[in-house]
Design goal:
It is a single chain. This protein has helices at about 10-35, 40-65, 75-95, 100-105, 110-120, 125-145, 155-175, 180-200, 215-235, 240, 250-260, 265-290. It has about 290 residues and is an all-alpha fold. The protein has one domain. Helix 4 packs across helix 7 (about 155-175).
């Protein structure tokens, strides 16, 4: 098949990636809701333990009896540990920051992806992707300005989350030759084992009441679905091509922030978010033009 007739990778990967954004934004909103009354360790444990319960039967059904076997164990463990670190940073910062603004800072991840995709994946990012990443960075600086709701030490946690999340995405792409069900399983396994060891320190006030049980269970379901979609998307398209579309998660973050917490970005923060989203949309337009016959 000629290059002109070959389907563009975004055709199959982008719907999965956008669906992952919805699931993961819903996960963030659910976590912020629970963090108002429950310990950070308990919420993170529930997120991973629930994901483990959801994805293990799914991985077994899709990957067969040997779904847990991997030829790249060290890379799987490193990738999953980065996801756990990103979760710690993001959930920790959510205690103190509005959801939309916190999500905006996390969109430094595409900047890190564009910078690191060369040395880690050997993928060359064209100038348009660099321009999109720089535009997103400028938008984040506007949101982070002194005097804003996110000019807080917790913003450093979000920057750490962005770096860890970028590395997680790049290693997900590097593991594209592995069965996605195997990668999905390890994403849940490392966090579940680590957080189960730490759980006693998060139960000083006892187990949560039954009224919050459904939201705790929802954490795992959303995490499992979201990360399955991410893995499938990265197995079908390059990381530098997909990552800028994560900017569109901002729409969900603003909607959840308003509906659940009565929080709306101020005018200047809204401008910064518009710059972030605009950078991603401009790149999408460029990629469509670049691959049009």
């Amino acid at each position: 098949m000629s290059d002109a007739n070959r389907p563009h990778p975004l055709r199959h990967a982008l719907p999965l990636f956008l669906l992952a954004g919805f699931f993961l934004s819903s996960l963030d909103a659910s976590a912020k809701w629970l963090l108002r009354e429950h310990s950070l360790l308990l919420v993170i444990w529930a997120r991973y333990a629930g994901q483990m319960l959801v994805v293990t039967p799914f991985a077994r059904a899709g990957g067969g009896a040997g779904f847990w076997r991997t030829h790249r164990l060290r890379l799987q463990l490193t990738r999953s540990s980065l996801l756990l670190a990103a979760t710690f940073c993001f959930f920790g910062g959510l205690r103190y920051l509005p959801l939309a603004e916190a999500s905006a800072i996390s969109f430094l991840a595409p900047v890190f992806v564009v910078v690191l995709c060369g040395p880690i994946l050997g993928e060359r990012a064209p100038r348009a992707r660099w321009a999109s990443a720089i535009g997103g960075f400028v938008g984040v600086l506007i949101v982070l300005r002194p005097g804003s709701a996110v000019f807080h030490p917790a913003a450093l946690l979000m920057i750490g989350m962005a770096l860890a999340n970028a590395l997680y995405g790049l290693l997900t792409r590097k593991l594209a030759d592995e069965d996605p069900h195997t990668s999905l399983f390890y994403s849940a396994l490392v966090g579940t084992v680590g957080m189960t060891i730490a759980l006693p320190f998060g139960l000083e006030e006892g187990w949560p009441p039954l009224r919050d049980t459904a939201v705790f269970l929802l954490l795992g379901l959303l995490a499992g679905l979201g990360h399955w979609c991410v893995i499938r998307a990265f197995s079908r398209a390059p990381a530098a091509l997909l990552t800028p579309f994560s900017y569109l998660q901002m729409i969900w973050a603003i909607a959840y922030g308003y509906l659940l917490f009565g929080q709306l970005p101020d005018l200047t923060s809204g401008l910064g978010m518009a710059v972030i989203v605009g950078s991603g949309l401009a790149l999408a337009w460029f990629e469509q033009r670049r691959h049009s016959p």
